[in-house]
Amino acid sequence: MKTITRRTFVKNSLKATSAIAIGASLVANVKAAQASAPSLVFSQIPLPYSFGALEPSIDTMTMEIHYGKHHSAYIKNVNDAIVAESISFTSETDFFTNASKLSAKARNNGGGAWNHNFFWQVMKPGGINLPGKVSEALTQGFGSFDSFKEQFTAAATGRFGSGWAWLVNDHGKLKIGSTPNQDNPMMDSSDLKGTPLLALDVWEHAYYLKYQNKRADYVANWWSIVNWDEVAKRLA
Ligand code: MN3
């Protein structure tokens, strides 16, 4: 057995002391990081209706997977990215207007988190009648409600691959367009810009179980579950 000399003992004690010091400074760093932790945390809104409430336009299993798996993953992943990348934007507005500066993970999942929270709100079981205020605004913007519906449908069915169709208010002018992936019109990187008034998810995960490749049927059946009150609320 090796005799521990006084010298070795001192050396080992110093090592132990410095390990404690490093440990303490790590704790201090973590505490400092927590103190300056970004206040932006995305959270998933409770679904305003049951999973089966949008039948037959959107089937129960699609809603369960869409809300419970896809959307919740976007929420988790964006919050992970905010912490891992020390993203310091404290509001959703700042986050999206600086989207071009974010990593792909933060931008895609942040979009996915926000877009779905919005999407759940602009739908309602059984839909509702078009409020006069919305009807007037759409007629003014697009000539007639039918013309609006036609253009929005074209944006939704024409988006190649995964993405979203939108009705936005761009400084008082209503516009229809689409975005790829989980981009949204609040992002500085988006071609379509404005305040979202209505959105439709046209990712295959939003309709494939019931409609397979027939996106046009999904879009056609979606009109009967639009919550126009939410659109009215967001109209200036
Ligand atoms: Mn989706």
Task: Give a short overview.
This protein has helices at residues 6-35, 60-84, 92-97, 104-121, 132-142, 145-158, 208-211, 215-222, 228-234, and strands spanning 163-170, 173-180, 195-201. By secondary structure, it is mostly helical.
Structure description:
This protein has one domain (59-236): minor pseudopilin epsh fold (3-Layer(bab) Sandwich), CATH 3.55.40.20. The chain has 236 residues and is mostly helical. The chain contains 9 helices and 3 strands. The chain is 52% helix and 10% strand. The protein has helices spanning 6-35, 60-84, 92-97, 104-121, 132-142, 145-158, 208-211, 215-222, 228-234, and strands spanning 163-170, 173-180, 195-201. It is globular, with a radius of gyration of 25 Å. Bound molecules: manganese (III) ion.
